[in-house]
Amino acid sequence: MSSQESTRAYLPSLEANPRLGDWLRFRREGFVEMYSGKVEIGQGVLTALTQIVASGLEIPFDRVHAIAASTERSPDEGVTSGSLSIQHSGAALRQVSYEAKSIYLLAAAQHLKVPVDAVTIQDGCFRAAKQQVSYWELADDELLNRTVAGAGAPFTNEGTFAERIDLPDKIFGLPRFIHDLAMPGMLHGRILRPPTASATLESCDDQKVLACDGVVAVLRDGGLIGVLTVTERQVDLALTVLRRCAIWRSVDETLPDEDQLDDWLRSRSIDSKVVSTRAPNESENSRSPVRTLKASFSKPFLAHASIAPSCALSLFQEDKLEVWTHSQSIYNLRKDLSLALRMTADSIVVRHVEGAGCYGHNPADDVAFDAAWLARSVPGRVVRVRWTRADELTWAPFSPAMAIDLEADVDEHGSVLEWRHTVWSNGHSTRPGRSDSPALLGSWYLDPPFERQAAINVALSAGGGADRNAVPSYDFRAWNVINNRLLDMPIRTSAMRALGALGNIFAVEQFMEELAEAAGADPVEYRLRHTTDVRARGVILEAIERSEWNHDLPEGWGRGVAFARYKNTGAYCAAVAEIEALENIKVRRLTLVVDVGIAISGDGVVNQIEGGAIQAASWVLKEALRFDRQRVTNEDWESYPILKFTEVPSIDVHIVSSTASSLGAGECSVGPTAAAIANAVSNALGVRIRRMPITPDRIVAAFDQI
After folding, report:
1. Which one of 214, 328, 454, 562 has the largest count of C-beta atoms within 10 Å of its C-beta?
2. Stated pTM of the model
3. 254-268 confidence digits (pLDDT tens)
4. Is residue 449 one of the residues assigned to a domain?
């Protein structure tokens, strides 16, 4: 294998984008521009990537300018997802910076007429024999107009503290989000959604709408209908009138029975696959099972529930389309816009602007289509579309519901010999750019409509979907993991933070607790009994020590522990939860220990672990999509409650010191936190709740079954 081939196998982002100049550009003004295909969505990734480049080039942090991703200039790194930004983009930029420094070092030596080994670097200046020349004086795009040469750039001092470059504007309320973006002559648009997903538009008398103040146009293509106005207040009023004028034909009872969701999941048409299996070898067959234990678990459909609804802007002029979006996949979005609008991809530029934060496939891509479709009717005018709260909570892609059956054959000591894990769920991805039909809500209502694709699961080798973390993280001698993907998708599903790992770890780590109880074993000792992975044992033991596991709790309190290695290949995380069980369950304290390899930005890692833990607490205690047989019914925070600031627990995060390769942190705390809370509830109350969310009604029902 050649050096370049080994580099591209080692660094996947460089395989797709091997040209050094696609990543860095030195400017004579005294700074270097950094281009990444990964986008800032509140995880602090641009700060960490800036640290990597500054370290690799041996220049001050403030001389690196992170350029927002766009299809016009940035490398195509696919989707910002899966906690892979540091692993992929960070590794690529480390290699690119290392090679760029070597190239400029040689250029400096030639300029100074000295040997390369006589040159030192300080503050972007190359110095030798009382002479110096800087990156900025030597700046020449042609120097980086070459492909990456090799792999193996060293880690240096990247883990030093650096202030987040995105936070000052957010803290002081300065314009930074896409919602703050305003342009001269901008129009405001809204799309009228049907009363149910299956409804068809029969007629619409738009004359009353056109008579409203500020209305510029009412647009219709098939069942897609929208309005443009001069101000945002006017567009809200016009949409209200438009809703009264539209006549729809609906189909009854296309959604499942919410109260029978687990049965519905198990009864649908499925694509069933054995995703992982291991048979015991001859030396392991000496012990025979003496008992089989079984349990079933489930999670509901979940909404992204972003605090700020999705927003996009678009401008169409001279047969070119520009789109400003907070999408996590700008190149994939460009592909689907090209399909839906029947334009060439080269005629579309997609620019990323920060949104208010979302980990997964929320409506950012859908609202981008809305803005682009409306903008084509008013060439030369920028169109801004912001979804309403009701749109966001009823029309977004949702995290799929999951039903999970677990079985374990144990020996005379209660130790697991063989493990069986079966999942029923819709696929966990309908992201744009992965099909011949656009994955954009509005495109499904055009005339003719584009086909709605059923959600897929990416291959387990690429992180998986419903089967993520279904493969055991423990040293069982045998296992069999089956994933049943539902082919019916009456409720639109796609990726949400951690994908299937939330449901699978919630189930696995509760079942491990039940197995420990059946064996009469301490739950910590039982987990340690089943793993020889030094890093796994390390985070578990550290979490136990830091949480003061054996200290007495007040009456009505409970404590629980859980562990997982995210995706079986990512970061290690152990969580200990302390809860108070009164009229409601309140999480009082969370202790989380993570091993993410080299932590590029320690503050950023802590931020991500805390955020994942808080979101997991909200999911496991409060959240569930509500729907009747026709439509999703949660339209506000009353019908879809999320964790409040007053309910956030005390959180202690410890990062294990490591010299191993960096691993993503954004999603690894989700599953262990949810499972630890569930185990703490069982510890406090003596009953186990196997369905999310853990609500007072479910606790009462569990007591009734004792």
Report:
1. 562
2. 0.93
3. 899 999 999 999 999
4. no
